[in-house]
Amino acid sequence: MSSQTIFYILKVLSMFLNRFFKIFSFVFVLTVSGILFLFPSVRTSIVLKSSDILAIVDKAVSVPFVVVESKAKDLKNLSELNDENRSLKSRLYQKDIDQSKLNRLESENRELKDLMSIKNSVSGSKQVVSEIIDRNYGSWDQEFVIDKGSSDGISDSMFVLSSGGVIGVVESIEKNSSKVKLLVEDTISSQHLTFKIESQGQSIFALLNGYDEKTGEFRLLQIGDPVEIKKGSLVSTSGLGKYKSSDLPLGTVTSTQKASDQLGQEIRVKPKANLDVNRYVLLIGE
């Protein structure tokens, strides 16, 4: 059998099969349509099954979109929460700053009122209110610099007071500033500051000998025979020596004991002033 014959047979067979499948498909469609038309229950069952299948497919297809939408909402909510958190932190920080400023202003106001009260109670001496402009951390409880100097009439014979009483003396002077040495400074005894104690109707004089950091008390040394001094007696400047201003409060007596060198008695004094002065001081002297 030749190749042309085989090709012809195959072509005829193909045409036959093609025509057969077309007829079969047409008959199948007619048969199914007839069944659906003649038997409604079958049609309903097929529709219900088709609906279930479509619902399952729709649900399967929609799941990724639902997940993505849910995550997008979560991210949006998270972003809003972050923005709100930053806003609240900023407002809280500003509130802390405002409260800090308010506390500082209230403290400065109390300082100035206390200084004005002392200033109004003292007469016959030069008085200058000054501001602390420099205070080194390493010598915080030893000294500081104020914004008044020789051009303001400051002299090295002036006491320095904070709210309550005396806390130091002027040590050195420049034209527009001065250095203040605090009474708690380690070498303060070299200044030979004399204070007086009013007890039982008499004035007792004693030298400032140092400061006890553990008890927070000044140590004064009375030279000579010990004199009975009552606890709570007022201690103030004497006006003797280099520093002429008298009756400026230092503190009150807490205790007395015989001096270690047996040459007098040591007097312990609780400071009346706030030694940790914040900003303003009052200078009094000649």
- The average pLDDT is 78
Topology as H/E string? HHEEEEEEEEEEEE
- Helix percent reads 40-55%
* Strands side by side in the biggest sheet: 1-2-5-4-3-12
Shape: elongated
Radius of gyration: 50 Å
User: Could you state the oligomeric state of the chains shown?
Assistant: single chain
* Main structural class: alpha+beta
Q: What is the rounded distance between the termini?
A: 146 Å
Residue ranges: pLDDT <50 for 5 or more in a row?
A: none
* Total strands: 12
- Estimate what percentage of residues fall within beta strands: 25-35%
Largest sheet: 6 strands, antiparallel, barrel
Separate helix tally: 2
Characteristics of this structure?
2 helices, 286 residues, 12 strands, single chain, alpha+beta, six-stranded antiparallel β-barrel, six-stranded antiparallel beta barrel, elongated
